[in-house]
Amino acid sequence: MTAPTIDATVPQERRLVSEVPGPASRSLMARKLAAVAAGVGTTLPVFATRAGGGIVVDVDGNHLIDLGSGIAVTTVGASAPRVVGAVQEQAAAFTHTCFMVTPYEGYVAVAEALNRLTPGDHEKRTALFNSGAEAVENAVKIARAHTGRQAVVVFDHAYHGRTNLTMAMTAKNMPYKHGFGPFASEVYRAPLSYPYRDGDTDGVVAALRAIDVIEKQVGAANLAAVVIEPIQGEGGFIEPAAGFLPALASWCRDNGVVFVADEVQTGFARTGDMFACNREGVVPDLIVTAKGIAGGLPLSAVTGRADVMDAAHVGGLGGTYGGNPLACAAALAAIETIEAENLVARAREIEAVVLDRLRRIEARDARIGDVRGRGAMLAVELVHAGTDVPDPELAKAVAAAAHRQGVIVLTCGTHGNVLRFLPPLSISDELLHDAFDVLAATFEVTR
Ligand code: PLZ
Known about the structure:
Layout: H1 23-35, E1 48-52, E2 55-58, E3 63-66, H2 69-72, H3 81-93, H4 105-117, E4 124-129, H5 132-147, E5 151-155, H6 164-169, E6 187-190, H7 195-198, H8 203-217, E7 223-228, H9 244-254, E8 258-262, E9 286-289, E10 300-305, H10 306-309, H11 325-340, H12 343-364, E11 368-374, E12 377-382, H13 392-404, E13 407-408, E14 410-412, E15 418-421, H14 429-445
Helix pairs in contact: 3-11, 4-11, 8-9, 12-14
The chain binds ligand PLZ.
């Protein structure tokens, strides 16, 4: 395949010129602590000054390999050239008019692109918002308007955001919900398919377990929507057993329940398909997207069946910035990049490289309980050797050691014991191998 386009001004190599964090980052961190609310945490105490392709440059001049993509956002690479050019051009033309006041073509073009790219060839409509959480909230509003029902079903380990409704939908208390209640009502939680922990390799069995809970504890006649991440993100990169999603979607169809796929983290080539639902041919009624949609600018969307989307009354959906012109220009450029550079195929190549490296580490290390994921959304679940007891301390220690060596790696999971890998799809194999050399060595020294 042709070499991915990357910003040539940021050399694509790891380079450490100070300890990490260096003195400039440390002094900025002191200012941050004095000026920024304590609730806004940071994973690495390192301040960025530039980024390009798979490299983040910090204020001390260290070049760090990015295995996080700003939490699955810069899928086309940091400062992808098409995105930068499109945003510069749009900023010079106009920055904002508000689509609800005087509309502009970019918004419509993004809606057309999403209607074309998302699963299913039925007639679709799209509405644009700013954040993943805001789009999830709007998907629920639309499902309620369409069905005239109120209840929403979500799953164990789910993550859907930090706003009031989405806090209720998110499973994990600390840090997302603790002390922030009361939460929205009419949100119910069903059991997930989690093959490593429930042992069920038959997704249909797991789906029947969830459906039984839904029927007994909620009742289909009260249920507006089932909302699910096709591969759970923050909850631990949990891929349900094959058959789980199709069985749930078909139960929803039979019962007039809106099936909503939250593809905020899995969307836009990340999993080696344009959308994770494609792998099993699942066609959601509504699909929620954000993150990778716009190469780093804040944009999110709800796309779905025209009859469901159009159920909300005129004027019922919106917001000042939803589908801001800069974000729309960025999205069109990001989508063009994904298609022109065939990043879906590149995600599958990254999967092959990274899974091989992870399995080699796993073969030598009993603390790796599970290796899983798809495309460039891969993870290892860490446990105490010889058990399945989660080991969040090890995840923290490995991540911190990797950070000191110039590799940005994130953790996740309800128990915080999952190391996750979300490289930009423009990353080179050389950078990936260098990063996994560091990680392999880190696993050795933490033993
Ligand atoms: N749905 C599936 O992954 C965001 C959260 C980071 P927003 N995940 C990263 C943090 O700690 O806040 C996410 C997601 C899924 C919804 C969201 C919410 O997207 O753009 O952060 O609102």
